[in-house]
Amino acid sequence: MSNDTKKPKDPSTNVFAAKPKNTSPDVPATRPKNPSANILPTEGYVLEIDGKFKSEYATSDEASKAGLELKKKFPHIQVYVYGAKERTRTLVETPA
Q1: What is the pLDDT of residues 35-69, one digit of tens each?
Q2: d(Cα 56, Cα 73) in Å, to the nearest integer?
Q3: Tally of CA atoms within 13 A in the half-sphere of 7 that contains its CB
């Protein structure tokens, strides 16, 4: 058998050969970066779930309420409320 019967590869099917999308002039060139999960925040209250900072809240009560909801859904995770100004961690526990 001859190799002459093979079909040539179509370069448009190569996933790695895809060109970046053209951006329009109205879209900003840079997007805001997501905060790192390991950098200590400087203000507000943050939920710390299994050692990673996840979501930020303005008050301790909002953060505690969100942490309690998570703890009810997923009782096996560790949830803390981190106060940035005080640099304290408060464990969120489900009521007995």
Answers
A1: 565 677 778 899 999 988 888 899 999 999 999 99
A2: 19
A3: 3
Q: How far apart are CA 14 and CA 9, in angstroms?
A: 9
Phi (first) and psi of residue 83, to 5 degrees: -90, 115
Q: Is residue 26 part of a domain?
A: no
Q: Which amino acid is at 54?
A: K
* Domain encompassing residue 83: 38-96
| Domains contained in the chain, number | 1
**Distance, CA of 46 to CA of 81 (rounded, Å):** 6
Residue type, 30: T
In a domain, 73, yes or no: yes
Q: pTM here?
A: 0.59
Q: How far are the Cα atoms of 29, 33, 35 from residue 22, in angstroms, in the given order? A: 11, 20, 26
3-state secondary structure of 15: helix
Token pair belonging to 62: 């909002």
